[in-house]
C-alpha cells in the first residue's frame, strides 16, 4: 500500500475524532444555551406541525395561557385554548438535557439500556446456536 492511502486513512481518523469531540462539547454545554434562547420571551412556540405545504398547527404559550393555533394560506386562527396541565406536560416533554460528561450522556439517553438489550439478545442467540450444535452431535 502506498503512502497516499495511509495519509488519507490518517486524515479520516483525525476527522472522526474531531467530530466526536464536537458532539461531546455540544452535548455538554449546548443544552442550557438552546433552552435559554427562547426562555425569556413572553410568547413561546412550544410545538409546530406542518400539515401540508401551506397549513401548519402551532402550540403557543402566551404568558400563562396556551393555545392551539392554525396557520393556513395567510390566515391565522385560534383553534382552542389549552389547560395549564397540558401546557406543563408539553413543556416538560420539550426539556433539553444538559449532560455533565459522556457517562451521563450514555446513561440518560438510553444508550446503556439499548446496548445491554442488543448484547443480551446477541448472547442468547449465540448460546442457542451452541446448544443446537451440541444437540446435533
UniProtKB/TrEMBL annotation:
The keyword Secreted does not apply. Keywords: Bacterial flagellum, Cell membrane, Cell projection, Cilium, Flagellum, Membrane, Transmembrane, Transmembrane helix. It is found in: Cell membrane; Bacterial flagellum basal body. The chain crosses the membrane at residues 6-27. InterPro entries: Flagellar_biosynth_FliO. Belongs to the FliO/MopB family. This is Flagellar protein. It comes from Clostridium moutaii. The gene is fliO.
